Amino acid sequence: MKRCSCTALLLFVVAVGASVAADNLPEPQVALQQVPAQTVFAASSKKDKGSIPSSSEGSADKQRVVSPEGVAYLESRRKNPPFGAADFDLKGLRAGMGARREPTINGVRLIRSKVGEIPCEWVLAPGANPDLRLLYLHGGGWVSGSGGNYLALAADISVAAKCAVLLPDYRLAPEHPFPAGLEDCIAAHDWLIGNGPSGPSPAKATFIAGDSAGGNLTLATLLALRDRKRPLPAGGIALSAATDFTLASESLKTVHDPIISARTMPEFRDRYLAKIDPRNPLASPVFGDYRGIPPLLIQVGEHEMLRDDSVRVAKKARSDGIPVRFEVWPGMVHVFQIRGLPESREAIEQIAEFMRSRQPKP
After folding, report:
1. Could you check whether the bond before residue 174 is cis, i.e. omega within 30 degrees of 0?
2. Per-residue model confidence (pLDDT) at position 63
3. Whether the Cβ atoms of residue 148 and residue 179 lie closer than 8 Å to each other
4. Domain span at residue 347?
5. Kind and range of the H or E run holding 246
6. Fewest 10 Å CB contacts: which of 54, 87, 124, 205?
């Protein structure tokens, strides 16, 4: 995408608090600002006309511009077609998403564990509280991925939030279609309430987070825990979440995603859901009733085919009275938190701040 020479399109991060009425969640829109061209990324193009909410009135969040590293990363990714643009290579996807990526932070402990038959791994940074626990659900389209692929991100979150992170290898489709993976996530949260990196011990607080398919499972797990009257975490964190298997979000048609093609969504859906109704809220959380679940942090990048999945689920949760902090990050791509950009580090700090704000007072 070309940079503007005079006027650039500046997009905002959105923070949506519980104190504003649900009807006030802004409708998708953009705002033009006169800004130095070298400091922002021009977002407008014929291929990218998806809806993005602007900052709500009274938001404390600063206006964000895209870092030079973010601009360069997006430009480099757009030189090659996204995954699934030509064909759906499940074997290749599984090889890539199953690769183990260990953290480089000194002193981080990696502790293998099991929840029943579910392989898991704890990530514990130096100084982290083992009784403050985050269940992190990996991405991979419900058909690929592993906790081992997310060790580095888990370590970054453990450092920032001073928490222990549990990565479960939930069952994957099509060998184990819906709701097998979801049941594993529910079981993992039940387990970590009373078990930590060193063995049985009560948690001070728990959280659930995940990206992409894992963001979907994060929201579905919260809904299922509430419905089953199981203990709920203090908060949920959904990153670049897929929320609608009816594939009704406008951004699936209008956003040029440099990471993954919108053509992959029917492939994922057919393998994961088989013959399940795609409007089932535990499959498509955008159709869920959010009353009674804990507060949410939702982060998504501007240049994502799934962007409007996040816009819509944030609006739905807020209409049900749930406090939602919703952030659209300008210039960013799918699961930008793992990309090693300045925005990646800042987003992880936002995750940590959300967790700190939700912890019980001493």
Report:
1. yes
2. 72
3. no
4. 8-358
5. none
6. 87
Is residue 319, in this structure, part of any structural domain at all?
yes
Is the pLDDT reported for residue 322 higher than 50?
yes
Query: Nearest 5°: CA angle at 250, between 244 and 253?
Result: 105
Contact 163, 123 (CB under 8 A): no
Q: Tell me: pLDDT of 14 over 90.
A: no
- Alpha-carbon distance of 184 to 116, in angstroms, equals 9
Instruction: Enumerate residues 6+ apart whose C-beta is below 8 A from 141.
Output: 93, 212, 213, 264, 267, 268, 272
By C-alpha distance, which of 320, 270, 266, 336 is closest to 73? Answer: 336
- Within the chain, residue ranges assigned H as helices are 68-77, 90-97, 151-161, 180-192, 213-227, 251-254, 264-273, 307-319, 342-358
Strand partners, 92: none
| β-strand pairing of 235-239 with 195-196 | unpaired
Report if residue 308 sits inside a domain. Answer: yes
Measured between alpha carbons, how far is 182 from 300 in angstroms, rounded to an integer?
22
pLDDT digits (tens, 9 = 90+) for 85-143: 999 999 999 999 999 999 999 999 999 999 999 999 999 999 999 999 999 999 999 99
143 in any annotated domain: yes
Q: How far apart are the first and last CA of the chain?
A: 50
Q: Would residue 163 count as lying in a domain?
A: yes
- DSSP letter for 147, please: G
Q: What is the average per-residue pLDDT within 289-308?
A: 98
Write out the catalytic residue numbers. 212, 304, 334
E strands of 23-160, at which residues?
Answer: 31-33, 109-115, 118-124, 129-137
Average pLDDT of every residue of the chain: 86
**CATH code (residue 279):** 3.40.50.1820
Q: What is the pTM of this model?
A: 0.86
CB contact burial 289-320 (16+ within 10 A = b; e otherwise): ebeebbbbbbbbbbbbbbbbbbbbbbbbbbee
Count up the domains in the chain and report the number.
1
Q: How far apart are CA 134 and CA 317, in angstroms?
A: 21
pLDDT number for residue 310: 98
